[in-house]
Amino acid sequence: MKTATLAKLASRERDLGDFGNALVEAFSSRPRTISPKFFYDAKGSALFDQICGLPEYYPTRTEIGLLRRHASEIAECVGEHADIIEFGAGSVLKIRLLLDALPTARRFLPIDISGEHLLAASAELKKDYPSIAIHPVVGDFTRPIALPSLPVDGRRVGFFPGSSIGNFTPDEAQRFLRQAAVLLRGGGMLIGVDLVKDPAVLHAAYNDAAGITAAFNRNLLERAQRELDAELDAEAFAHYAFYNPLLQRIEMHLINMRPQVLRIGDLRFPLQEGDSLHTENSHKFSVEGFRALAVAAGFRPGRVWCDPDHLFSLHWLDAPH
Q1: CA nearest 298: which of 174, 205, 211?
Q2: What are the contacts of 4-8 at 24+ separation with CB within 8 A?
Q3: Taking the model in full, what pTM does it have?
Q4: What is the pLDDT of residues 202-248, one digit of tens each?
Q5: Angle, helices 212-228/3-27, rounded to nearest 10 degrees
Q6: Strands 260-264 and 107-112, how do they pair?
């Protein structure tokens, strides 16, 4: 990139914020890629809630089925008087299945990047679970984040559902799990992990007939229009999702279908037909492969629960002192 453009980027860095800076960096690079965490503004979070109810999208209903079916066994692993920390809590729906089985849970700390969505969902949760102290934390759990101080005698238990671990690169997944193992030492973590399966099932899940996943993907660009006054034709970008068997992951892209110029402030990014923005990876795992990843990060794998069709898994991981 030319020096003048770099100077412009540096001068605007503070004004654009995390999302704007990430978008500028993405369109300034080859290949163009951006973190999927930026999907989750208020509209993106609402669209994802719709995705979770789609008939093609098996992960949510399968994981909920596992949580319901094995709630008492999971509660035995969690133990008494736990402080529960949920990473990427979103609508805090799945935690209800755990809290119903954990009458002695002391506190619940849901962390999510979408503040408006999290605070509204947490307010509803407080009404239904008045005996549990609920402290929503707005922030990016992949970075160092200030949590409310926890009692020194508290048992910390992490909850990371939805197979969000699959959105990380392998290095990022290892880094997150290492950080979690330290944060939760003496306790443990319950984590949802999507499994390797028939690619046709995966293709349907990420290319739903109603087009909700396409709208969710494209909302990233619409968010740029809303928050950054970006000038572009978001409707000219096609949703494209496919399974990469060599890397065992779904990839999601936005493909520009006509020549146009993206404008963010005084920055200009010429886009040609066929140019791609890589918006998400969703890695799939074998049970044995994920357990090996957890061991390398400092956890001690415990019980595993899978559905009869072997679509999805829940893992209990002990976090040794």
Answers
A1: 174
A2: 5/267, 8/266, 8/267
A3: 0.90
A4: 999 999 999 999 999 999 999 999 999 999 999 999 999 999 999 99
A5: 150
A6: unpaired
